[in-house]
Amino acid sequence: MADAAFAGPLFGARIGGVSVVLPSGLPLVYLADVLVHPLAGAAPRVCGLMQMQGLPLVVLDPAGAPSPPVARRMAVLVVGEPGEGAALRVEEPPSPIAVAEPRPQAIRPDCVFAAALERPVADALDPDRTWWHVVPARLFGLLATAAETGADGWPT
What local confidence, expressed as pLDDT, does residue 3 receive? Predict the structure, then answer.
């Protein structure tokens, strides 16, 4: 059974090792090669800033890869309007997905942005895959404020 909340096509992406259903109704723009400038003193999951339509846009990394202190090029997915949204570092472009029945028993992934995930659903083509709907504002807030953690799981 398809997601009843949205009658059009759904798109998904893998961010930080988690399969997420991208929010319908928000602009989504995939950019394969964007220059991102580091931001001194930023939280560990903030890659830096990029420009889109002349406006600065923060770039967040759900995977938490270390950010070198130099400008670099990367693929990003812009979620929301420039000036109001944010960009997520991605390894591959988003793609159309087909979802099946809800999976309320699914175990929430162990990731820094777990609180932004809700309404897990089965993948219609891969029975082993679960898609999680994501709340963008919550996701951005969690990534922008996530502390660096040590091997013991405690903030450093």
Answer: 42
Partner residues linked to 29 by β-bridges: 78
Radius of gyration of the chain (CA): 16
Average pLDDT, the chain: 86
Would residue 155 count as lying in a domain? no
Res 95: pLDDT? 92
Q: Is residue 5 one of the residues assigned to a domain? A: no
d(CA 17, CA 7): 27
What range does the domain containing 30 cover?
10-145
Count of structural domains within the chain: 1
Under 8 Å between Cβ of 144 and 113: no
Q: CA 77, CA 60: separation in Å to the nearest integer?
A: 10
Q: pTM (2 decimals)?
A: 0.82
pLDDT < 50 regions, the chain: 1-7, 149-156
Considering only CA atoms, which of 19, 112, 133 is closest in space to residue 64? 112
